[in-house]
Automatic annotation (TrEMBL):
It comes from the Bacteria. It comes from Niastella soli. It catalyses: small RNA 3'-end nucleotide + S-adenosyl-L-methionine = small RNA 3'-end 2'-O-methylnucleotide + S-adenosyl-L-homocysteine + H(+). Belongs to the methyltransferase superfamily. HEN1 family. This is Small RNA 2'-O-methyltransferase.
Amino acid sequence: MLLTITSAHQPASDLSYLLHKHPDKVHEIEISSGVAHIFYPEVSETKCTVCLLLDIDPVGLVRRNSGPRGNDFALEQYVNDRPYVASSFMSAAIVKAFSTAMSGRCKDKPELVNVPIPLEVELAAIPVRGGEAVVKELFEPLGYTIQMERHPVDPKFPEWGESRYFTLRLTNTVTVQHLLSHLYILIPVCDNDKHYWTGQQEMEKLLEKGKDWLPTHPARVFIALRYLKHQRSLANQAMAMLLKDEVTEDDEEGRTEPEQKIRVHDLRLQAVRDVLVKANAKTVVDLGCGEGKLLKLLLEEKQFEHLLGMDVSYRSLEIAKDKLRLDKLLPKQRQRIELIQGSLTYRDKRIEGFDAAALVEVIEHLDEPRLAALEKIIFKYAKPIDVVITTPNAEYNKRFGNLAAGQMRHSDHRFEWTRAEFQQWGDRLAELYNYSVVYKLVGEEDPEVGALTQMAVFTTKDTTIGAQRFLSYGKQ
């Protein structure tokens, strides 16, 4: 099990100061199931490489386990890859070998701690459940350039196909402290397994080591779930802690949108409700439901038999639960509505099979690669009969006296489209996924720049979907 970190910083030998490991010595550190060796195969002014080599004792690994680790395979602890691949053992070794560097301390050269330097990492063998797409999902948002070499199950038998093991090379200009925290958390996330019990203490480690970058990572829910071994209660707690300072809808609107007789956000919600009522939808999923304001409106309409609200923020869902008074609803009403936590950029079968989907001021919060994933999840997999999407009209921004030219309405917006740009996007989706689309403006219209909000209403052309839903109602 081998990890190498190479620095091209000038002088490159500064890496040894940051890691608190003398380059002329071979260091040995005992870990729970073996020994970690730290040494420098190359040290010069132009290049410095440090190696972390784990020598895991397979017999000791078995003796320390009283039985299979939650696996039905009786010989799993005897026949496994743990001694040979980068896994949670590597994370444990990183934090023990480089604890001072991970805490952001450097006695001899403290001025280097917060300096991003060019670094290259190589993991000789890392298991990745989900393959190359997962690695890109995890590391690209952090600025890494990725090279991967996938290993076959057995080179002598190519017909057996490829394994889930890779040689992974990462390059980035980043502080050593951040690099180590990224590796510490994301190595076991790639593996999707851990060799020890995961509880409250692990959640605290996740928050501590990821505090500088995890709150803004687009895959933070995915990371938390895998890091905490899919214990959703712990992941929910972690998300609530990470997102506790998140700006709410009311903050966003009050900051940029003018006071009107009817609040702009209320107009949006009413417009979306009216579209869903007119579409005769009976089941609706509100994607990015936030604090449940649209759900509250829909719950008042007897037409809607089942409502599902999904949001990435556990905190927002807790607020929605309180505002909707779910614990006080009559049983018949309570059965009509459900709240779930989830990401809009991963396929989730819980959101499939609905008559309609609504995304109110959601898409502008996604980077373009994430938006492409969302498009496929909604229109290819979920395939509702109707999809209602609202987003800011960028042309209207010039009417805000407090916005500079080119400035967006909120710091978390990744883009804001003009009416032409929104229609170009919508037309492409409609053609690609066999939908028709119409566009509407929400709010008072300005003759020059349009309205503050723009809306697209997509309706499938696939008549078999509507027929299937109609038949399913008849069976109920």
